């Protein structure tokens, strides 16, 4: 019973603090209750575990906290590096290892509950992960095909589901009936799949972390990134959400600080478009009540990198003394857009517009493939080395 008294007190204080955090954020222009609730949970849990350890004569929690400090330093030093996803995921492993130690020393019910929950999720995914993933991918593919046009980017979840199905059928029904040298030839496939799965997990993690940007209300420019048009002259719902996010920040900043920002619409004219994306975006912003004098156009770019480069040139020309800028795009796209901003030498964080949930799996897979292509040589080397070992092993078995 003694072990439960600190746990009960912690739970009580945690929920009191959580209510205060939610009340505090309710009156803010950008409440983001989830982000600040997670911050409070991390701080309160860290203090609780530290007190428990001090009571038992140790302070090993300083190891995961020190590593978390390093992870956060790396992240805020440059938010657009893929290594940040790996570092955060490795922190989760370090913290999980620490929980095992804490439970063994303190027998605390809070730490024990966290550990059991983490192990349950891990085991659940280990035993049912691939089947659950396949079911989800087929379901998502059916929804996307029903609601969106049939194009290769919209078929990514279906293609992945089919690939996983083929691999599963091969592993369960075919592999055991093949000669050993043939199965050895394909033995590198699981390693390659694991490599790309870990790479995707790191990408997804850093993409989610990047969603929690909170730029201050002191921006001189808000860049809205363009996308394709309907009938060559009207913004799509997806593009409208990007512009709405920019307009929302523009209005919140004006209301809070009285500082006027310029909306910089960035997008050129495609071969199948009647007007530039920037002009269509301006027309939409005007229809939403934005004064024409607060809208600038960048209408020469053909891709995201050029969006950043050409927008930077306009801002530097207008504000040679320096400026503050952010950009808006859809939430699945802002991390890669941030990478292009860094490549263009533009110091700007991204704000993500919400995207329909059913569309996110395809969208993130498309972003992942695009980022893989940015580092294709590195991935090609890894795949080649794995396959070389498999081929060599297969040859040896064939002649033995």
TrEMBL record:
Residues 220-370 form the DUF218 domain. Keywords: Membrane, Transmembrane, Transmembrane helix. InterPro entries: Cell_Envelope_Assoc (IPR051599), DUF218 (IPR003848), Rossmann-like_a/b/a_fold (IPR014729). The keyword Transmembrane applies. It comes from the Bacteria. Coiled coil: none annotated. GO terms for biological process: Gram-negative-bacterium-type cell wall biogenesis; peptidoglycan metabolic process. The chain crosses the membrane at residues 6-22, 34-51, 57-76, 83-104, 110-139, 151-173, 185-210, 380-399. It holds the Pfam family DUF218. One of its GO terms (cellular component) is plasma membrane. This is DUF218 domain-containing protein.
């Amino acid at each position: 019973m003694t072990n439960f008294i600190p746990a009960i007190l912690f739970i009580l204080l945690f929920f009191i603090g959580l209510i205060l955090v939610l009340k505090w954020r309710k009156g803010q222009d950008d409440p983001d209750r989830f982000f600040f609730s997670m911050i409070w949970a991390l701080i309160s849990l860290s203090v609780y575990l530290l007190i428990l350890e001090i009571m038992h004569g140790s302070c090993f929690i300083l190891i995961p906290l020190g590593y978390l400090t390093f992870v956060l330093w790396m992240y805020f030093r440059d938010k657009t590096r893929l290594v940040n996803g790996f570092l955060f995921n490795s922190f989760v492993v370090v913290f999980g290892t620490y929980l095992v130690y804490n439970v063994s020393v303190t027998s605390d019910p809070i730490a024990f509950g966290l550990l059991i929950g983490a192990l349950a999720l891990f085991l659940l995914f280990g035993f049912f992960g691939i089947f659950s993933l396949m079911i989800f991918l087929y379901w998502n593919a059916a929804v996307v095909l029903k609601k969106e046009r049939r194009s290769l980017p919209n078929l990514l979840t279906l293609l992945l589901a089919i690939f996983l199905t083929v691999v599963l059928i091969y592993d369960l029904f075919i592999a055991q009936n093949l000669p050993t040298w043939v199965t050895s030839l394909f033995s590198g496939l699981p390693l390659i799949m694991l490599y790309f799965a870990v790479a995707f997990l790191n990408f997804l993690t850093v993409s989610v972390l990047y969603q929690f940007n909170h730029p201050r209300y002191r921006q001189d420019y808000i860049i809205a990134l363009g996308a394709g048009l309907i009938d060559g002259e009207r913004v799509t719902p997806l593009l409208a959400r990007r512009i709405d996010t920019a307009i929302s920040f523009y209005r919140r900043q004006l209301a809070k600080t009285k500082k006027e920002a310029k909306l910089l619409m960035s997008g050129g004219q495609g071969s199948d478009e009647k007007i530039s994306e920037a002009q269509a975006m301006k027309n939409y912003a005007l229809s939403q009540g934005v004064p024409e004098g607060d809208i600038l156009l960048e209408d020469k770019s053909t891709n995201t990198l050029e969006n950043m480069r050409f927008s930077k040139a306009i801002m530097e020309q207008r504000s040679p003394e320096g400026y503050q800028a952010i950009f808006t795009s859809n939430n699945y796209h802002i991390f890669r857009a941030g990478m292009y901003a860094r490549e263009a030498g533009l110091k700007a964080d991204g704000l993500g517009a919400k995207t329909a949930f059913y569309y996110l799996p395809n969208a993130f897979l498309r972003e992942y493939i695009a980022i893989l292509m940015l580092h294709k040589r590195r991935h090609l080397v890894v795949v080649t080395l794995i396959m070389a070992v498999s081929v060599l092993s297969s040859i040896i078995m064939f002649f033995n």
